[in-house]
What we know:
It is a single-pass type II membrane protein. The protein is α+β, with helices and mostly antiparallel strands. The protein folds into four domains: 22-169, Porin chaperone SurA, peptide-binding domain (Triger factor/SurA peptide-binding fold), CATH 1.10.4030; 187-214 and 485-585, Chitinase A, domain 3, CATH 3.10.50; 225-241 and 394-474, Chitinase A, domain 3, CATH 3.10.50; 264-368, Roll (Chitinase A, domain 3), CATH 3.10.50. Helices cover 48% and strands 17% of the residues. Strands 5, 16, 17, 20 and 21 form a five-stranded antiparallel β-sheet that branches. The chain has a four-stranded antiparallel β-sheet with strand order 13-6-15-14. Strands 9-8-11-10 form a four-stranded antiparallel β-sheet, sandwiched between helices. The relative contact order is 0.15. Residues 4-37 have low confidence and may be disordered.
Amino acid sequence: MLDLMRRHASSWIIKVALGGIIVVFVFFFGWSGPGDKSRNYAAKVNDTVISYDHFARIYDATLKKMELRFGGSVPSEFMDRVNLKKVVIQGMVNQTLLLQEAKKLGLFVDDSELVRDIRTDPSFQRDGRFDEMLYRAYVSNIKMSPTTFEEARKQELLERQMVRLLTDSVKTDPQEVKQLWHFQNDKVALSVLLIHPEPITEPIDSKELETFYKENEAKYEFPPSLNMEYAVFSWHDLIKNMSVSEEEAKSYYNNHPKEFTEPERVHARQILFKLPEDATPEVIEQVRKRAEFTKNAIEGGQNFADVAKSESQDDATADKGGDLGFFSRGTVNRDLEKVAFALEPGKVSDPIKTEQGFHLLMVDEKKPETVIDFALAKEKIEHKLIEDKARKKISSDADNFYEQVYRSEDLEGTAKQFGFDVRKAEFVSRAGGIPDLTSDPKVMEEAFSLRSGEISRLLRVGDKYLVIKLLAKNKERIPPLDEIRKTVEQDYLKRQAANAARKKAEEILKALKAKPEDADAIAASYGLKWDQLDSISRTAGFVAKLGGGQEVNEMLTSLSKENPLYPTPLTTAEGIAIVRLTDVVQGSDEQYAKEAEAFEKWILEVRKTEFLKGWLKLMEDKAKIDISEKL
């Protein structure tokens, strides 16, 4: 089990452990039924056919759940990594294998067990009791008849029964649980020796460079690309030809008085005396008296701002002499607002009690409600009205423009008529996108689907419209060395420098293995110094100065007091690193005692999951399984 934890130190297993989430054994997708002879299948498992239609329903439902989790569309890079179709069909195959084995063993679910399961499901209960109307409403909402739903529920119960039969015998060992807990909760202190690659000053050997290029030419392949011309435009392009009459501006001004009215405002200062959350009546009275005493001192001649700096407990305003700035009604606490707007400038308020404590206010200045003159508001109104006109007009202009382009196939000429810019771009790749515009996958898919000379659909990119005309398609190619010689030379020199740094690291490692007690002296003999890092968990996944990845995980999980030196140099962003363990900070027995029960349950779930996966793999190997080429 410890080996399992080490091998998957940054995988889902550890992530689940860190999140305290219990691993689920298998997805229950619903039964597709044996003996379906349709050619339209997703998979065949022995004598059971999983229809493609059934797979599609499950796939769509699973995707919908993921979209809800992401709050919208699922990121494409996540979908590529997950391979959802494979996950869903594998879950359905697993389910089928479980049900087939349950049938062989003579397992079954009788009606009384089904009734008990449904009647005790909280989803169908109201006030702790089964509610038939609630049950029927649920079945209706998922577009199933009670008979169909209950048959599917029976199969789910049968699957659970089969899983329990397989995994109930799986146990944990208390010593192993404690060892695994420490593996996850102990922290390791690491010391790092970083060897920076040094610039290569020797001339480049042309034959070696050619060999390097041939070995790595796939890295320099130019992907398929497009040469195109495209028109991109938005409502901004229409503004230059638009105007607003003074009558229109005045009409807007008269019809929207609130937009041009500045409300009454007060410039005030405060001194706050905070109250503890659990303040007793006695404490509250003491704080109020302190506020009252301070008010009297200010009225006796002390400067409000100076007193605020020394006495106020409001972190936001104390250093500024309690200055709250100008504020209008509805922007501060109502009790403070009421007093501030009633208080005469220069006067100090009585203590005002709020949830924070007691406040003293003083008004510096008041500004009455004012109406902005039309002459001052005119320019702002004109900008707004022109923008509104342009936004309304661009939609119809875009449709008219596209219709003319589509009929004439003359993108440049039509754009000139409408006053839109036409740009040209060469070697546009899917990943690189259209220069200074977009690499949106949907736009790039449209562009790459075009034939030479063909016009795209009218596309939207944010608030811009885009029309593409494909000029030529460029196939992927590996350029000759001379075309990209400078880039290749830079990469070659980087590799040579990295190789030299690695060779030096290996020399140092050899010396350290021979005399580990002389670690500091050995580092100094190479002009280097060990860098002590902060203690981290073995399951951290990322280490300062080292980064993350499989090598780092392997290092974190393999170092021990018996073997403190990692035997292999690590490649990092800054160079080549040698790592050694300097200490292990153990989790406390008290903490283990608090977490042991929950941790043991998690370990048991992991063990059961691993056992079930192993059993399913064994059954897969024995079964006759045919996955459709569509998937």
